[in-house]
Design goal:
244 residues; mainly alpha; 77% helix
């Protein structure tokens, strides 16, 4: 308690000294351009060291005051994770993604598509939207980006590039995707699609037809994801409804 009183008194003294300095500054400005201005400016300059001292003392008191303030306990990273994982919304979202992934993969296998994993990835990506409207928008953007990216991949795969040129292209597309991911999802998908196809071709030779397979798998995943999102939509999700 005594320390707090001394701090308040010290702050009051500093406030008074600062007010005096401000008065000197106002006086200097009032006579600026007259014969008395030189004398006023010299008098004000004498207070520069005092003003700097007040500033240093105030900064020290601010740091000390901040250090004495009791910090509220912060929940640990694992605690936040457990709370979020056990929430009803997380469980609902996890079940939706699992159902969409399994359904799209099963349909892709049934239709004889060569890469059912791409269909499952497309369905999961659609369901990452915060609401149904964003899920539909995300699905359209992903499909459009895959179509354009597949066209780029067709041209690159037809060149029969070697290992190191393919690696250079993968790195370039990866950097481009990282730069675009916060700007536009469609542009990001355009960069990711040829990158994924070229990476797949590093292990096994892929022809231009693989790009069309990518589009077909993505279309299947997007449609499945949107249907699952529509069937399992939350009662609190009203973003897709027209406002009155």
């Amino acid at each position: 308690m005594g320390c707090r009183v001394r701090t308040d008194v010290g702050l009051a003294e500093q406030a008074g000294r600062l007010n005096g300095l401000l008065d000197e500054a106002e006086a200097a400005l009032a006579v600026l351009g007259t014969a008395e201005s030189a004398t006023a400016l010299v008098r004000l300059a004498r207070h520069e060291a005092q003003l700097r001292k007040i500033r240093r003392t105030s900064a020290t008191l601010s740091v000390a005051g901040a250090g004495s303030t009791a910090l509220e306990p912060v929940e640990s990273f694992l605690g936040v994770g457990r709370t979020g994982f056990a929430s009803r919304s997380s469980l609902h979202q996890g079940l939706r993604m699992a159902a969409a992934s399994a359904l799209s993969g099963w349909v892709a296998v049934t239709l004889g598509l060569g890469h059912p994993l791409w269909a499952s990835m497309g369905a999961v990506a659609v369901l990452q939207g915060l609401n149904y409207s964003m899920s539909v928008q995300r699905g359209i953007q992903r499909l459009l980006g895959n179509v354009i990216g597949a066209l780029v991949a067709v041209g690159l795969l037809s060149l029969s590039l070697g290992f190191w040129p393919s690696v250079a292209l993968v790195i370039g597309f990866q950097i481009l995707a990282e730069l675009l991911v916060l700007k536009n999802y469609t542009l990001t998908t355009i960069a990711v699609t040829p990158m994924a196809l070229i990476m797949t071709g590093l292990g096994s030779h892929l022809g231009p037809a693989a790009a069309m397979t990518r589009v077909a798998d993505t279309l299947l995943g997007v449609v499945t994801g949107v249907l699952v999102a529509a069937v399992s939509i939350s009662r609190t999700d009203r973003h897709h409804l027209p406002t009155r």
